[in-house]
Amino acid sequence: MQFFWTINQIPELQGLSPEQTKQAWQFCYKKYAFKHWQSWVSLFALGILAAVGSRFGIIGAAIGGGLGGGIFGLITTNVLRPHLQDYVSAHFKNDSSSNESSPDNPSNLDQSGSDF
Q1: How much of the chain, in percent, has pLDDT values that exceed 70?
Q2: Taking the CB of residue 43, how many other CB atoms lie within 10 A of it?
Q3: In sequence order, what DSSP letters do the residues of 19-86 get, joined into one string?
Q4: Whole-prediction pTM value?
Q5: Residue spans per domain, the chain
């Protein structure tokens, strides 16, 4: 499990514009973040840590909530990475690739003559 300080450090979002990064993150977060049990457990841990911290006053609650929020962010980011990869590959094509077939880009070869 890796820790990313910002959304721009997530490898699946590398090379996208800020608008594309925001669009991909918001879509995947809204659609997939709470469909995984890990996100719910980390959200529960956030609440527990904030509650335990509140026993020591407002500073304790802030520290507990901060620790819980960090855990929630870490878990949620790692849960969303496969979904981000799928979203980026489906919605943001590589602009530098051409539609012509070339030896360097075999994905564009015409397969209409294949026997499949």
Answers
A1: 78
A2: 18
A3: HHHHHHHHHHHHHHGGGSHHHHHHHHHHHHHHHHHHTT-HHHHHHHHHHHHHHHHHHHHHHHHHHHHH
A4: 0.68
A5: 35-89
